[in-house]
Amino acid sequence: MPPKRNNQPPLALFAAALLAGAAFGRATNAPISYEAETEASYVGSAQLNRDKGNTGSIDEAETRAHVVLSLPIRDELLLRLGVDWQRKSYELPEHSMLPNTLQSLALIVGADFQVAQTWLVRFEAQPGYYNTGRDLRWAGVNVPMILGVSYFVSADLQLVAGVSFDAERKYSFLPGAGLRWKFAERWVFDGILPAPRLEFTASKALMLYAGANLREDTYRVPSDFGLVQGDVKLNGAVLDDFELRIGAGASWEAAKGVHVEIETGAVPVHEFDFHRADIRRRIVEPAAYVDLSIKAEF
Fold first, then answer.
1. What value, to the nearest 5°, has the Cα angle with vertex 261 and ends 19 and 120?
2. Closest Cα partner for 233 from 245, 224, 242, 243?
3. Residue 218 belongs to what H/E stretch?
4. Angle at 131 (CA atoms; ends 266, 101), nearest 5 degrees
5. pLDDT tens digits for 22-68?
6. In this structure, are residues 192 and 178 in contact, taking their beta carbons and an 8 Å threshold?
7. For residues 89 and 101, what is the distance between their CA atoms, to the nearest angstrom?
8. What SS3 class is residue 224?
9. In sequence order, which residues have a C-beta less than 8 Å from that of residue 260 and are 6 or more positions away?
10. Which of 40, 53, 178, 232 could form a disulfide with 191 if both were Cys (CB 3.0 to 4.6 A apart)?
11. How far is CA 285 from the centre of its chain?
């Protein structure tokens, strides 16, 4: 973990931003809505490939949390402001040439634009630190962005297209498209990346689902990381962490606006790519995972 004194400036900035948003809402009498989510997951042991065909065991514990407030500026414009935090911890084999911790702390700054009656445009940027949590240099600052467009064909069908941008990622621009379709009274196909799934409403409070989750994040390792690992190409290198999860779960409405989700399944693909240093590691067998999250909207 980084020293506490290094964490104070960004945390103070984020807290100030949230307070400023709340103050704006009070000053303009604008109704403010909040969304919050906390998530913890564990991925069991799998074999990770290393140099010369060697393998070793890797497992993962991940924690994520974010809170976003939405401020209506006018009828067709909604401002979104919040904070996002993530930490991944790995048990790694010797000489894996990978960090055992990846961490990010970022603002969420964006807006929703209503165009006519059937079009919605969302822009979002997440400026912050994306690194291992111990080397808070300027090089660890990044600003991933997304731009998405939704078209409401009807109350039961929504079409979505968008693009994500990350200047540090191997493929800076990644386009995507999908749809959300309620094709029967209790069935919904939510085919929107990065987490497409099929949903079944079992009761008023219980929803069952099955699907996939594509997780890709980019980080900067410390400036001396290569010296420690024995390859100077990795000093301050950029790392893409890509993971594909396939599983099923249940979502329970514990209270009005509060949902608890538990999910389990397999991770068939997990790849670590130092794409600028041409060093790559990946699992060579599926791993089991379990995930618990709490989501709230007010």
1. 55
2. 224
3. strand 206-220
4. 50
5. 554 555 555 789 899 999 999 999 999 876 667 789 999 999 999 99
6. yes
7. 5
8. coil
9. 251, 252, 254, 292, 293, 294
10. 178
11. 24
